[in-house]
Each structure stands twice: as C-alpha cells, then as structure tokens.
Amino acid sequence: MKSNANEIKFLKNRSIIKFEGEDFLGEIGIDGRIFKALTLARISVGVISQQAIENGISILVQESDSEKAVNCLIDEFEAERKSGKVSQIYSINNVSVLGFVAEDFNKILAELARNNVFPLLLNQIAAEKRVNIVVTSSQDEKAKNIIESEISKRPKTVHLAIIGHGNVGKTLIEQVLESSEEIKRRKKIDLKVVAVANSRKIAFNKKGFDNNWNDEVVTAQNPSNVEELINFSKENQLENLIVVDNTASKDFVHNYHALAENGFDLVSSNKIFNTLPIEEYRKLRYTLNKNNRRYLYETNVGAGLPLIDTIKLLHLSGENITRIKGVFSGTLSYVFNNFSLRDDKFSTIINEALEKGYTEPDPREDLSGNDVARKLLILARELDLINEFEDINIQNLVPESLLEVSKSEFLSRLEELDGEYQKIKGNQEPGHVLRYVGDLHGDLQKEKGELDVKLISVPATSALGQLKGSDSIFEIYTESYGEHPIVIMGAGAGAKVTARGVFGDILRVSETK
C-alpha cells in the first residue's frame, strides 16, 4: 500500500549516540563496526549521520537502549579511545524523529528557526526529497505542526495572547472570533486566542477561546505574569506566537525583552515602550533583531490610520522629512472641534467624550498633553532622532490645582475649567477655531528635533480648522513635496478603530511568519 507523500513519520522516545574524534572520519569500516557491535548487542539502529564540522558520527537508537549502546561502543572502540582517535562517546536522550518528503526544505528550516526549533540532527536523501530531522521531545509536537502546515498547505496556526481586555482588548477579541473563519479561508491563517490576561490573572485555552472567553477569564486561577505565559507556550509547544499588549501599563512593557527572547512577536497599542529612554528603546530593537522577532505598533499614533507605516517607508526610501504637524489626539480633536462650534461648556464636552469612550479612564491623561507628546516622540524616533520625553515643550490643559487630586475628585470639579476655556475661545480672531496640535520641526537631519505640544487658534477654513468629530490629521512635510504636505486624515480614536488597527498588525505579522 502506497503511503501518502504528505505523511510525517513521527518517532518518539529516541536517543542520539554521539561519537566524537578527529582522525577517523571517512575511515573505511567504521560504520560497519558500529552496526556490527550494536547488532550483536541486539540494538536497532535508526539513522547514521556524519558531521564533518563536529568531527563526529551520530547514531539514533531507542531511548531504552541508549546506556547499553554507549557501553557497547566504548568496548568496541577501546583501542581508538586509548590512542585519542575517538575522544568521547555519549548519549543525548529525550529526542524525537520526524521523517517527511519536502519540496522546499529550506523554507521548513526557516519556519522552524523562526519558532526557535533547531534540529539536533538532519539527514537528507536529495533524490527522493526525503528528510529526517531529530528534535528534542520538548519541541517535537511544535515541529510536527509547523512541518505539517508547510507540506500539506493547510492553514497556519497562529497563537495569540491578548494582554488587557478593556475597551480595545474586548473589541479585538470579538473581531478575531467573528473573522476567524473568513481569515482561515482567505489568508490560510488559523488565528487562535489561547491566553487572555488582565492585571490580576491570566486565562489559558490551548484549543483557542470561543465566545465564552470572558467567563473563563472570570474563573481563571493563574496569576497574571509573563512567566506563566512563557511556561504555557513551552509546555504546550505552541508555534507562531504573538503577544498583543492592549494595556496602558508602564510595567508590562518591561516584559517585551523576555517575550521576544522566548519566541513571541509583539503587537502593541501601548505607547509607553516607544517613549522610554532611547537606550532602552534601542536595546529592544537589538533583542528583536537577534531573535528574528517583529514588533508592530501602528496604532500608537493615529489609531487605525496608516501613519507610522507611511513615515517608515518615506524615511527608508531616503526621503528627507522636514516637519510633521497635526492633531494627534482623537480625544482632544473631539473636545475642541465640538467646543469651538457649540455653546456648551468645556466640562460638558469632556464628560461627553468620557462617556463615548474617547478619553482615557482618567481624562487628565489626555488633557495633560502627555498622550500627544508620546505620539510626537514616537514619530521623532521613527526618523532616528534621539529626543527624550523631557525635550518636549508641553502645554498642560489641566490647572495646577487639579493635577494631584484623585480621579473622582477631578471629575467632580471639572466645571472649574469652564471659565478659563470660555475666555480662550472668546479671545480668538473671528472665523478661528481651537486645535490642540503636536509639531515636530527644526533641522531633522541633526540628532534631535524640536517638539511642541500646544493649544493654538487656526482659521476655520484651514485643513486643521475643517477637522470633524474625533478625526485626527497629520501633515508630513518633505523636501520633495515642498510646501505641499502629504496629509493623512481620518478616525483617530475609539475602541473599534484602534482594535481594527491592532488586528491589521496581527495579520501583517502572521503573514510573514
């Protein structure tokens, strides 16, 4: 009966017997003596492989025979061991063999390497395209899944760990669950959400969560820490791992290094990491590079708009970007677009934005200008500028008397802002509106640029003045385009838009895996 070409021969509980020495490689009769000695000892031999680089021979046997095989070969080659021709004979236990036919073995090797699986031994019969590889048993299921996906052209499984299930995280999980069948059919990618965490606990489901994911998070017992996630991925031998950071946590970002080193690609809507001191920022880029990991964060600036990607492409193509200016915050866009046109009080519009989910849970995070400043710094660093957060001139919109009070007290005293902002609005020239802008300018060919974040008054007929709703607008000035900037404008806030942008990053990472 003919076996299926796509079938994988999978043998567990094997051992490699390593046979090392400098001068006996290629010597006639060595293989014969090994076979004869093991046959007399009634030990079945799987694969024999010579490694010229390592000056050695590797033999595959049943794990239960490994000790006997080592002793038997030590006896057989006693003279060579005494003369130094054979330096050592030892076993590597807990290995598995995967045998398969591969059209493009190099692609399979690349996929295995991307998932931190490096064969201990491989044996190729080029004419038949047949390959045998030996991997540690702690990675054999993962290796089998990767090889199966490649040779049978079945959808590639991508395992997602979603950190943070607030507005954006919850929406993202729902979007993934709703679209998974369509993505499997169209892109041959099988997305599985296998971990969901908040700041207190983390829930796991190896087969992938369904619509009842929230119940499983509620009843989860595991404490929320990265070691739990890394151990879960290793114990279950999960391939193609992506961790998605939907938090605004200053602490979680310090786990990015460990995650990248343990086989996770990163997708983040959290802006904190990209605004840490430049030394830390560069260290992660080095870790990512060394481990062949990707880190995408398109939603850090402009929610679902293709802004970071555009700037990256312009910069990499050698285009000299001379200035980036715009309304960076969908929240403050909504606030000032409405406040400029309506007769409502400033506090009424802040509360409205909070209810719609446009602001951070504490609106001061938006009103302080820190959010816009972070976004501006992220763009500066995309241009290889080494600015730090302290370099940014930020106009804080919160009065000093309300900076240190609790969130609940701040929200109860919001009306204290009304008089000041009514005055600013009234003092404008006719036909002008208020906009809170970020502006990266100066000589951007030097090490540092100038970064300003402030409230300005602009003509209602200008591009900035015509902004509507919670839209953001970004003007990218370049040497080639002169006075006519590239303008990117669109929805800049809201859980759905941000989640959709994060989802886009997940798919981009998945397609390159």
TrEMBL record:
Residues 306-507 form the Homoserine dehydrogenase catalytic domain. Residues 164-298 form the Aspartate/homoserine dehydrogenase NAD-binding domain. It catalyses: L-homoserine + NAD(+) = L-aspartate 4-semialdehyde + NADH + H(+); L-homoserine + NADP(+) = L-aspartate 4-semialdehyde + NADPH + H(+). Keywords: Amino-acid biosynthesis, ATP-binding, Kinase, Lysine biosynthesis, Methionine biosynthesis, NADP, Nucleotide-binding, Oxidoreductase, Threonine biosynthesis, Transferase. The keyword Kinase applies. It holds the Pfam family Homoserine_dh. Its cofactor is a metal cation. One of its GO terms (molecular function) is NADP binding. Residues 20-77 form the Aspartokinase ACT domain. It is an enzyme of class 1 (oxidoreductase). Its EC number is 1.1.1.3. Pathway: Amino-acid biosynthesis; L-methionine biosynthesis via de novo pathway; L-homoserine from L-aspartate: step 3/3; Amino-acid biosynthesis; L-threonine biosynthesis; L-threonine from L-aspartate: step 3/5. The keyword Amino-acid biosynthesis applies. Belongs to the homoserine dehydrogenase family. This is Homoserine dehydrogenase.
